[in-house]
Amino acid sequence: MDPARHTTAARLLADPAFTLFDVQTILRHASVSTTQIYAQPRLEDLVTKVLEHYARPRTKGPVIKSAYDSAAVRELLGLPA
For the segment 44-77, what is each residue's pLDDT rounded down to a tens digit? Predict the structure, then answer.
């Protein structure tokens, strides 16, 4: 595997301006599954995303309107009673 090609593919895939199919075309891959090999997330990016997730305030669950039987809706959605 050519390190320069791997780095180029990884950087292009990390750029939101490029789709997987754009990178496939640039690298001249016959199959998108070949291009997906380069789409492995970096550990640093995953850690950043997890930290951002936990830093966001929690959102409240769904509000059930009084016109509905709240017990039936909770059962339908699998929510605790």
Answer: 989 999 999 999 998 887 776 678 788 888 888 8
| Average per-residue pLDDT for the chain | 87
Q: Exposed e or buried b for every residue in 28-66, given b needs 16+ CB within 10 A?
A: ebeeeeebeebeeeeeeeeeeeeeeeeeeeeeeeeeeee
Side chain identity at residue 45, one-letter code: D
Count Cβ atoms below 10 Å from residue 22 Cβ, excluding itself.
Answer: 14
Are the CB atoms for 27 and 35 separated by under 8 Å? yes
Name the DSSP class of 9. Answer: H
- The whole model's pTM is what? 0.53
Beta strands in the chain (DSSP E): none
